Amino acid sequence: MNRPLVLLLVTGLAFGCNFPLGKLAVAAGVNPALWAAVICLGAGIAVGGAALLFETSSKVSGLFRYAVVSSVISNVIPLALTFAAIPHIGSGLTAILVATSPVTTAVLSMVLRIRPPSPLGLLGIAVGLAGAVTIIIARHVGFAAEESRWLLLAALIPVFLGAGNVYRTAAWPPGAGPMRLGAIVNLAAVPPLLALAWALGGLDLLAPLAAIPGIVAGQVVAATVMYLTFFRLQAVGGPTYLSQIGYVAAAVGVAVGVSFLGERYPPLVWAGISVVAAGIGLTTLAQARAVRRA
Question: CB-hemisphere CA count at 13 Å for 253?
Fold first, then answer.
């Protein structure tokens, strides 16, 4: 499957399921970093099994370095910064900063000249960002008092996410399949996430996991689906197009909340979703034009 829009929607849909499932898990008392480690472990094992079945195995150099750098930049550091910043600047402001990752990805892609977006693609990113911010603001997420040093630290979250998106394209090991990479990057993130979970409260809080087997299973399935398509989208669409899974996930999170969690949102949220869709449409058009010119 090499159609960027289909891959974007599937990956974003699976990514969007992480938020309501994570909300339920944390509400059940699960350590957030431990939950992230469980996700990475489950997805890594499942995607690794798929890679053994469907991808030809050959010796590829640089896999270990790629896995470690990708997992640290894309998973561990952003999660650590998020957990540290939310108590000080509020979840709403942190979420808005995370939603700017397509912008930082585009800037880094242009600076480093690694599959930079076209002017139409940049317009689509800007439109999608406006829609994502509209959704967040319209959900009436409260902002805590801003502390300058924590705000500066939180501003690094989209920088690391963007750097991870660009790095995975630039450093892609020749001959490595997308499922194989998805597996090793997830598994490489498990040890530092477990260390972070211990630092945030210890690993003796496993009982809440045993109490929610259905949510654990659902989260592992969602993460597996996401990573089965995530690295394929990286290869086909490039770093900037890939980064828009956050826009899709924002819309999916609203839909899941309304459909299954009894949440209700004002009309402005649905307007924001429409704006996100328009932004994705523009970037998809830009992607199609680039393919035709290639």
Answer: 22
Distance CA 188, CA 185 (A): 5
Alpha-carbon distance 83 to 218, whole Å?
23
pLDDT tens per residue across span 203-252? 666 788 888 999 999 989 998 998 899 888 888 888 888 888 877 776 77
Find out whether 25 and 206 touch, Cβ atoms under 8 Å: no
Backbone conformation region of residue 226, classed left if phi is above 0, alpha if psi is from -120 to 50, else beta = alpha
- How many Å apart are CA 74 and CA 78, to the nearest integer? 7
Number of domains in the chain: 1
Specify if 169 maps to a domain.
Answer: yes
Exposure of 117 in the CB half-sphere (CA atoms within 13 A): 28
| Whole-angstrom distance, CA of residue 246 vs CA of residue 132 | 9
Q: What count of other Cβ atoms lies within 10 Å of the Cβ of residue 103?
A: 18
- For the entire predicted model, the pTM comes to 0.78
Answer yes or no: is 294 within a domain: no
Task: Assess contact for 41 and 190: CB atoms under 8 A.
Answer: yes
Q: 280 is in which domain, residue-wise?
A: 4-288
The whole-angstrom separation of Cα 213 and Cα 230 is 25
Q: Is the separation of the CB atoms in 179 and 170 below 8 Å?
A: no
Can you tell me the mean pLDDT for 107-120?
A: 82
Please state, in angstroms and rounded to a whole number, the distance separating the CA atoms of residues 212 and 205.
13
- Is 293 among the domain residues? no
- Residue 170 in any domain: the answer is yes
